[in-house]
Amino acid sequence: RIDVKSARALTPEMKKVIEVWAEKNLDAKSVVLNESVDLELLGGVVLRHNDLLLDASVKTMIHKLRKI
User: Fold this and answer.
1) Taking a C-beta distance cutoff of 8 angstroms, is the pair 7, 37 a contact?
2) Residue 65: in which H helix or E strand, if any?
3) Which helix (H) or strand (E) holds 20?
């Protein structure tokens, strides 16, 4: 089970990308996406699986660029 927050509803293609990534990187045999739209996000996605948090949101990317 993966919780997915995004700025807009995920397209079927994006869901497939996340599922394939999870199967490969989390050794998951089947993936269940728990999707939610977060209007606070500018873009990108935030994934949570157990204790793993993958923040690929635009806000986080901009924050990281400012540190450089």
Assistant:
1) yes
2) helix 58-67
3) helix 12-25
Distance between CA atoms of 52 and 47, rounded to whole angstroms? 8
Angle at CA of residue 67, ends 65 and 68, nearest 5°: 70
Residue with tokens 């728990």: 34
Residue 36 amino acid letter? S
Instruction: Enter the pTM of the model.
Output: 0.82
pLDDT at site 26 = 87
- What residue type is assigned to position 66 of the chain? R
Return the CA Rg of the chain. Answer: 12
